[in-house]
Amino acid sequence: MRCHFAICALSATLSVTALAQQPAPTLTPDQALQKYRDSKAAALRDDFGELGRYRAANAALEPPAAGENRVVFFGDSITDNWHLEQYFPGKPYLNRGVGGQTTPQMLVRFRQDVIELHPKIVVILAGTNDIAGNTGPMRLEDIEVNYASFAELAQANNIRVVLSSVLPVHNYTPRSQNMFAQRSPEKILALNRWLKDYCAAPSNSCLYLDYFGAMVDGKGWLKKDLAEDGLHPNDGGYKIMSRLAEATIDKELDAKP
Questions:
Q1: I need a surface site. Which of 11, 103, 120, 146 has the fewest CB within 10 A?
Q2: pTM for the full predicted model
């Protein structure tokens, strides 16, 4: 029996609509990570450190004025999403965060985006994407030596160093499941212990900025109300971080050189 044209057309439309309304297949954490890596492959091949991101802004930036307490916030998406002008109004603070970056990528751009801007202080927040494996598997020892390189490069250029704890993560929402699975809470704790010990060593002259302790819940996870996706802070999270960062910066500025 031949199908009437209008009926066939309607049937085809309904079939396409039904397919479109089907939920997208849920990716496993490993599949989600691979999808992210694939999406960045071409960009990282051409500009691994993403030096192009702030090149024009850096070129347009004037040297610090006399008495200016310039601070560079250097990091990944947690820094990138942090609207410093909103949380630190009137402060000469520069945001040099790039979403998704790991510490090897950040080392590539450390001279351009920190040293050559001549800040008094650099506040470094990194490590979560290393643990996730954004640019490949990373041992904690490899992350730690990258942090040490940040500190040594900054101090060799008379820049004071604040090393921030890695933020906790949570698994309380559907959006958070992959973020959490890719970031081992045990590795976060271990890296934070190393950062705290490194800063405490008299020979290193760094300050440790403990976001983790103020944002973790009784389960050892990020407090649910501080991030919808389990990783990136919302306004409440950034308010906590801003208060702690300001206190640490003030402490460092008050310290003797």
A1: 11
A2: 0.84
